[in-house]
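Take one record.
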Amino acid sequence: MNSCFSNSIRGRFNAWILHVSEDMDHKTFGKWKQKIFEDIPDSIVELGPGTGSNFRYYPGGSVLTAIEPNQMMLDRLQKSAKQHEITLDLRQSRAEKLDIADGSARAVVSTQVLCTVDDLHQALKEVYRILKPGGRFLFIEHIAAPKGTVLRRVQEQKLIRQTWQWCMEGCRINCETNSALASVGFSKMQIQNFEIKSILPIPIRHYIAGIATK
């Protein structure tokens, strides 16, 4: 979603990372995805599907409008769609300006994507705009660590933030997606916080998973 996607070397690297870590992603987030995608419709808009790690959770025969600006993801994305019997409507636009009609989407999905958009509030306004009344926004996103913690102090270090953001295509490690969601105007929100453990020295631990209904 971010302008960082213009770098072809970094784009290829991140496409490879997503591909090789798909099984690890399933082990880490699979139970959360299965929960929020339990009764997902077969017509879906997904922001930043990457290489298709969510496709295993979608109904076979689904039609997916895929908003994926990173061209380096597309080969693996299309192969994954074919493997899982998903019809792709691929659009290389930005989350902040979706080429989708008002009130036309039954479900919008975002998993670990909103941290990369240039304008988080505008991206969420676009999600709200395209949803039908009663439509749902299904998400799993990392958020900033609680204030006062060691990890939060790490996340606020400029060098660490900028280095991570450059390497990971715009990812902001101190993103306040939880508070941004509350300002959009959804009629109902179901959100759960959770924390992951990792042996890797990554500056991200805290997540939210949930469903916001228009």
The chain has a mean pLDDT of 92. The chain has seven helices and seven strands. The CA atoms of residues 188 and 213 lie 5 Å apart.
